[in-house]
Protein 1
Amino acid sequence: MTKSYDVVMVGGGHNGLICATYLAKAGRRVLVLEANEQLGGGAATREFHPGFSVSACAQWMYSLNPTIAKDLNLASHGLQYAAKNLHSIALAKDAKHVTITGEGGVEGVSAQDKAAYREFRRKMGKFSKLLDKLFTVRPPKVIENNWTDRINLLKIGLGVKLLGKADMYELLRLGLINMFDVMEETFDDELLKSLISFDGVLGAHMGPRSPGTVYGYLYRHMGDVYGFNGPALVKGGMGSVGVALANAATAAGVEIRSAARVKSIDLTAERASGVTLENGESISATLVVSNADPKTTFNNLVGRRNLETNTVRRVKNFRTKASAAKLHLALDGLPEFTGLSAGQVGNRLVIAPDMHHIERAFNCAKYGEFSTAPVLDISIATVHDKGLAPEGKHVLSAIVQFAPGQLKAGWTEATKNAFKELAINTIADYAPGIKELIIASELLTPADLEGEYNMTDGHWHHGDISLDQVVMMRPFPGSEQYGTPVDGLYLCGAGAHPGGNVMGLAGKNAANEIIKRGGSA
Amino acid sequence: MSEVSVQQANDRETMLIHTPFHSRSSALNKLNSWENWKGFMVAHEYDDYELEYFAIRSQTGVMDLTPMTKYRITGPDAEAYLNRLVTRDVTKIKVGRVGYTVWCNSDGQVMDDGTIFHLAEDEYRLCSYTHCIDWLMWSAEGFDVEIVDETKQVAALAVQGPTSCSCLMAMGLEGIENLKPFGLTTFPFEGGELMVSRTGFTGDLGYELWVEPALAEALWDQLFAAGKQYLIRPFGLYALDMARKEAGFIQAAVDFVPAEDQVRVGRTRSPFEIGLGWLVDFNKPFFNGRKALLKEKENGSRYRFVMLDIEGNKPANNSFILNKKGKVIGTVTSAGWCPSAKANVAFGQVDAKYGEIGEELITEIYYERELHWTKVLAKSVVVKGPMYDPPRRRATPPAPF
């Protein structure tokens, strides 16, 4: 007999699990269907070489919303940190590294830059707090007269006003411009500028000069409001987030099935009425919530034939181009980086010598090529979390930019190897002995990440976090406030407001909206 | 500035595109009276619009139809594609048949009306008023279809009137008398192919002829030679407009604003609001506008299309429509005298509360005689229409002449 559920969740990524748990706590009968064996989506741990595991997609935790962690009691469900408040160190070939410390300061620059950084952080912190007001509610619609939305808008408007005249002007000015210009007008040190601006383009198909990258920076630094002072490492890798969330979900009464890939979202009289799995099994539900990205949800699961031309166009134009690859190395020992102590190697290491270098690296991706001089964000988690590798061995995980998902020359063994070598050689410039330590290596291109984690184009955020694709315009007008043009179908993933990163607010807000709209919403 | 003589001005190249029939139509256009039809130059009136109109109703009239926007839609998903695009069930239009339809945007507002010709398996022609290649291409996402604008690759003539079938038979189109309304067939013609559909915009017996442009002049010549004994004559858009009003056909951009052309919010109409609700089929798979149209069906429409039989003979163009208490409830979109029906017709848009068949309304008509303006409040009865609907329009085979 086919069981019936109040809600069937397509995808057991972190947002899907969070949404499911809140819904179950509100009394809904929820089934989560995950295509992969592992739960957590982009929060995943994977053994890429016997005995060696890495966080295979997201590698740092820096913005999990604390309300969610508390509501879902994630600590008691197994979420532990191996390290918190790590430094971000921009490597210099001459060992004159620049460090943004976990205490919120900066080392290795002039007193003037130190002061400028304090002021920069003060200002950005205020903006992040303001964004938090927007992130923790459903995105307000501007045109329709709805009191909840009006009050939310008023609160945000009031928040803008309360910034004070100078900071308000700064917000309005900075919001639309790019990291390059902001860095140029704020700091002197090239390496510091590069380190900070890199945060604005991580995971994005943008360079420091791309408009809207200041928003990208603020987005990345939401963790500063959520109790993170710099990146953290989850014990056991990011996959432990999935495990803890699955435990919390199960405890709340959510039924979870992994290795159950949804083939289609079924419609009855144009209303979402359930799903059909790849094995042919049909499951009916009052509501379908999709944790899958908008393109997968609308194009593959609902089907373009069941959608208005306008909707199909909006979905097509939602920008999902990704150009962040992942490099994983199994190492025979801890690599030595010029000018860093063994203790320091466990921090976040950034290779991005200056902003022009990042911009040039991005230029390649613009034209469908991989960067000939890539920029990297490196994590050697085994410094803090020995369990990820055999005794005395280490794993290195790095985000390597830029490598377009749709490489003009095509991703073949040859092109993948060429980019991998390029990335390894780049690291070797700063850690000369590292090549001798490599036991195994792998490169995951955005195309690989797409296949592995079921994200269109392998985009972390399911679509660019840029001003035209946020708040009420995420993923696109006509599909906002977690609802979609298809009645009975909701979105709760990174493709919905406020977006991606292991933050969880899209899942939580979606649950709130579904609960608010009541029974069959 | 140099003086330009009338002759020079007339000889000047026009901005408008000549159709493949231009050499023939211009030779007969005694008034040199032309209209701009979507960038093409077509006759407004050849010599006397009234005689042209009466050719449609008593003999055979011929009109250059080439500017009609034509799209060829082919591929394995052609049927599914069209079924998502338009409001009626395209699967019911079999090969060799033509269907009239409308298509809507996501708000359920009419973008255009037109005809779908099912030419062969997986092959269709869509004729429309608007140029809508962008919409057609956007709608093709996810469908395996090819869409080609073939407006300039196909020359077309409308051959309309009671003796039209006889003309075509005399031209040698064997078996044409057996072609049923909304049917289409082909004949070999001058080494090419002539497609004939039993369609038209006059409400009379009539056909439309479609050939490649290279054969256009030969087609015109043979048709006029064969039709001479049946008093064949060309007609322009003026006569067509008279005929279509009499036949109860609404005209895009006159009786409704195509949704993409709208400038002011709220000026578009749904199929229900322009009297074309019968073209909306909710028993077929998803189509553009479906959700909005279902909602409208449940909650009611804003406007209603009415056809009015107006007392007297003063044309009710641009008139207000009043209820019996004198309150303005709508406006006239098309109006005119129907010579064959001997009726004064108007199409109008009224508040949906009004306009039941048989309801008596008032049309406020202003008319002028030698700069003297007069107002009449003419009694106007809502009729089912059309004003003129001769049985020969549907007779197969049509009566021979």
Protein 2
Amino acid sequence: MTKVQLVHLAHARSGDKGDTANVGVIAYDEAHYELLRRALTPEAVKAHFGPMVRGDVERYELPNLGALNFLLHGALGGGGTMSLMNDAQGKVFSTALLRMEVDVPDEVAEAVRGRGRVPAGWTVERYGDDGGGLS
Amino acid sequence: MVSEERVVRVASGQGFWGDDLEAPVRQVEGGGIDYLMLDYLAEVTMSIMQKQRARDPEAGFARDFVPLMERIFPRCIDDGVRVVTNAGGVNPEGCADALVEAGRRAGVGGRAKVGLVTGDDLMERLDDLLARGHALANMETGEPLSTVRDRVQSANAYIGAAPIVSALEKGADVIVTGRSTDTALTYAPLIHEFGWAADDWDRIARGVVAGHINECGAQCTGGNCLIDWWTIPDMASVGFPIVEVSADGSFVVTKHDGSGGRVTRASVAEQILYEMGDPTEYITPDVVADFTRIRLEELGGDRVRVDGVTGGPRTDFLKVSIAYASGWKATGTLTYAWPDAAAKARAADRILRERLDRLGLRFDEVRTELVGWDSTHGSLAGEPPADLPEVQLRVGVRAAEREPVERFTREIAPLVLTGPPSVTGFAGGRPRVQEIMAYWPALIRREEVESALEVEVRDV
């Protein structure tokens, strides 16, 4: 087994409802959904965020989309206009979760290397160039 | 006769108040659409509009909507594109008045009708509702509204499709509402076109999912899309979504040919998960939708088929969005440069806090972030390196009274000459003091609201 950052296995989007941030995590490869489901328990996600999430972490499963939805309660400094946070609406809790490290079989680690990140040597002149992706 | 092959195209033109002003114009000029939906409202928008209306009785709606309609009104009438929007905010009557005037200026007088939906605004009825035993308890804390009643600024029920459908039946070309549920702006036209029964839960739920995908504009066509973002083409002219809905409620998400952006299974999946709670119970005024059986099929050519959605009976309640004044806040920033940028910023923060303390100022919260290091990923960022080229110190304060916050705004600039070195970035002047409008979600029995809804159709 090898430790891999979640950013190589999944993409994500986050939003807010009051003082709760939601993060939807979607496996790049649906074959990895089960692996994510086992690794990303509510307890593991709560531990990952540490002091950033004051309340509970709830998890919902959407196998139809190869996705998990997390609700991070008490994460937004009161939420809405109350919050003093730069990210008061939890827009980038998505990538904060993608920092998490998970154990995966060595062959999976090899297969997803570089996935989810701008390729080495990329410059903005190539922005929007379809050939720049790895998918 | 409704054919199973028939498709209704609902285009999205705005995902929030402040979205791309050219997007709705491109949607209409691209041709081939039946409806244009424009969503302007978010949780905090209503309270902002209420404040504007308190200063100016003619304000309180999304003003951008009026000049937009003046541009697109003739083309919409010529092409038979009907517009559905919640631009009315807390003053839908004022919005409709301005819209009629804009229509006349645009030359559609005598051949266009404006629909107006009112009755979602509960502000005038609050005391009566409380007196009759409606606690309007906070859905998160359980507290009764009476604890903050004297500070309430706005109270609006999220209303469903029925009044919009009624306005469409009466021939309205442009329909203005207040706090219509975002998704209803998309599914109300579908109920009207296909004649779905009020208890046809599965089909209405499919309309809800179409609405959820439409309601954030380009966020499903490549905008804010994380997957391979650097490969998404021509975002400068990103196409906003168009849902092509069949009579059974299944639909295809797409965008105009030749527009920028990308519609894939992944881009649509990201938007489906946006602001999602329990995916088995997505509650709207008209149905409870289940998102866990959605099937996404990539058809190629920026087309994704969405199918498999199911729904269950609507609840007996409507959600009420209440905003109440809850103190004051301000945020100040200064930029510190290499070497030891983060150390300098933290030293400045310490000085600032000592000064605030000596002035006897008391705050409910003082929050310090280093922009460029930990303001987005918090403690996950770890300790900043000594060679960080620069960092922005960002300090926010919050208090029940205005005075300490006002004084705080005068304590930032002095740090330039009285604190750690290599500091700049104070060109913007003193921080602005903002009044906090806190959000109070509550429930109300639906008949209390629905019996008061009114639909009016006016000639332009």
Protein 3
Amino acid sequence: MAQRRIRILLAKPGLDGHDRGARVLARSFRDAGFEVIYTGCHQTPEQIAATALQEDVDMVGLSCLSGAHNYLYPQVAKLLRDGGADDIVVVGGGIIPDKDIPTLKEAGIKEVFLPGAPLEVINDWIRANVTPKE
Amino acid sequence: MKELGKRVLAGDIRAASRLIRNLEDQITDTYIAIQEIFKETGKSHVIGITGAPGAGKSTLTDELIQAYRSQGKTVGVLAVDPTSPFTGGALLGDRIRMLRHAEDPGVFVRSLATRGAMGGISKAVGEGIHVMDVLGKDRIIVETVGVGQQEVEIINHAHTVIVVLVPGMGDEIQALKAGLMEIADIFVINKADREGAGKLYKETMNMVQMSRDRAGVSKGWQIPVLLVESVMEPHKFAESVEKLRDKIEEHYQFLVDNDLISERMRRKTAAEIQEALWGAIMCPILNEMEASGEMKRMIDRCLLKDTDPYTLADEIALRYMKEGLAKDICADS
Amino acid sequence: MFTQELLDKSSLLRKKWEDEVKKVIAKNPDMKERWSTVSDLEIKRIYGPEDIKDMDFERDIAYPGQFPYLRGNQATGYRGKFWTFRMFAGMGTAVVTNQRWHYLLSTGQTGLSTAFDFPTLMGYDTDSPKAKGECGKCGVAIDTIDDFRDLIKGIPLDKITTSMTINPPATALWAMYCASAQEQGIPLTKIGGTIQNDMLKEFIAQKTLMCPPEPSVKLISDTIEFGTKYVPKWNTISISGYHIREAGATAVQELAFTLRDGMEYVEDAIRRKGLHVDEFAPRLSFFFNSHIDFFEEIAKLRAARRIWAKAMRERYNSQDPRSWWMRFHTQTAGCSLTAQQPYNNVVRTATEALAAVLGGTQSLHTNSLDEVLCLPSDHAVQIALRTQQLIAEETGVVNTIDPLAGSYFVEALTNEMEEKAWEYIHKIDEMGGMVAAIEKGFPQMEISDAAYKFQQQIDSGEKVMIGVNKYNIEDEVVDIPIVEIDDGIEQEQLRRLAETKRKRDSRKVAECLKDLAEACKKGDNVMPYCIEAVKNYATVQEICDVYREVYGEYRDPGIY
């Protein structure tokens, strides 16, 4: 009966409203057996970090297609660290040039998924890399 | 686990969210933390919001948070969404409508999945309320999932129950079926600009009048029916939710003035003891049976009609009453 | 359409063919059982006279320039004038975008199209905390009329038409355009262009949100009224299916929701402004997506013209044939492009552009091969533009009008598109219109379902995207130049904004904004007040804040 479920916060930081990918992922996460808290578009990093803390998630998934990922993604990771939650895995997706990836990883984004990543690959990555809290 | 309780008492948000998680996940020994905090509970006014999916409960909750914050009151929210019976996953989307409060330290929103386990959600909600309570939230709003038998259990947790109805959804009948009419302290007709709102209002008023002298837990309370404007008219919407807030406060005061709070508290506590017993007895037994594979073997045998669930239950009850749990599982955390 | 004799003969021959097919299949089975469009519409192995036998030539097909305009609005097709080559462009500051525009005009582009950055699109200034990290990234940053003057520097406003992809702050940006024209001594009656100004599709799909649907539609009706009276050559709305499709809709959903949106605007302008349909309907314009499924797109565009003509004449009793014309811009599908093997995108875009032309578009944007990776480079934009020029001037498809008319398949598919679109339109009518349907989350849910289904079909391999789920290259290194917007742009724009704010008369700005708020409260047309406000250097956000204050802010109900 005691059973840890993987909890994921899925959010779109920044001002772009292109949420097709995020909406598809939200359903896919549910169908993969995860509990996913979807908070939609137009969020500030501060809102995302505060939500992640309140919801005690294991992972934060970020999607941004506006090109502002270099500011927004690291800012979420930093705010989580500041809130004492560096154990929360942060991953990002979207239109992200290859050369930005190392910088993002250095800033605490554990994995970056590019356009065309199959849902199952993402779900498998989560199962392998995100362990629900002890 | 003791540590977690102390940190929650000190107002640590992360500890609070972890404790709720542990309770939800039914992690063994989590009750130690609840023991730590229980003495401090009982200060918050708990408001339940129920009604069919799509009735606008989350949007109403969002505006109610705003209405309380404008008075300087702190708010906790437990928002429940259904777990998929097929995958065990859940899409928890209620707080998307409460985003504007995300950064407000006076507001703590927590999403819960029903998980589908027996008695699970009611228990998790009750425990979540305790955690929000000791965090010092003045008002705790519980937004139910909106379908199923468990809806009426909100009465075991809330001081004030709001039933939200929407014109044109055939709600009246749904609500009646679910027994929601009996637990309502306040009715809200949401999206009152829609066609059929007037008719729904009348019908609800009739129903309220017919059941005026119900033997419920709010004896003598005149159940109000409030019209709430569409959220598409943000200013009017906010105004009508402020009226709702005032009605909620009035109801609580009524409970206090008429000494009805203690009755609700007895009911709430009785339910909680039952749930705690379930957690203390059934949970570890079920855990042990799952872990040892006994559950699987029992299912196989029942399917073969080799035996039946009732005989097995008798056997297991006898065995545990005599022998207790295996020690190692008991201590596992 | 056909004589009974022909149908009988066809039936006979068809039977023979079917027998042959059975024989061949027994030996050589088909590669798969079900064949369908990218939107998952099932397609038959063959189409024949019996599939379109119920059509009436005069009623359903006719000639270009004749009702129901299936074959195009203009009698002469593309012989008098190609479609407008209109490439969407914008990046960084106004000065940078202005340079790009001049470059595009020098390469043979015939119309301009503005991409704004996200803060501008959402009605925030560069100095808003919400704008951090976004300035100039996906388009040009416009805060005040100072920026706007730089944007249009050297562009003859009375000769070149400019399209502005702007929605919630459309009144503010259009006001800047009008004010700038007046400054240059060009009367408003001479300027032409388009503001997208379509909020319903934002609620449905793209989520560039500001106020609730009701006041949003009111603001749109204001622009329609103002345009009708004072800026007669301007298209005050571009009713857009593009974003609906990009959000995951099927072709039928794109068609149905877009046209139903159009009907909602028509109804509001008639009801709220007391305008006669023929006063404003000739200036309504549309914007469609051209996706990768060639015939489905052609059928969709042909059906769109026929549905609109019927709706205008029959639903709204329009008398003026110009109101019956559906005029539309098309953009090839961004969502069909892949980050993998990006050069393949040139082929996709060419196919989609060809479909748009065969569908009879009036204006076209072709996506650049790198758009799934970054803002387009000059070279990539040039290839995209050349794609259009090549279709226009080399392929010969412009020689004759609507060459696919009469094709059993294309006509049957066009009919099917129309039929399915009307089903949606009637369903939305029953819900009480598009605003009511949006409030119920109906179109949003339909699109979410379609998007998820498509992704599952991609994951299962049922639908193919080359380079993504078939013919992948292991460890592919994508070697194309990536255009990046310098983060220094943000500082530069902040400096510009601060300078404008310093030099302006802030008392005058406050007055203008107060007048605007009053107009909003009274239900007056906001346009004259917006023009006055921008002339006095009110910012885009200041104007939008007035709307947010008076009408309230819309919060996404989160339907997925």
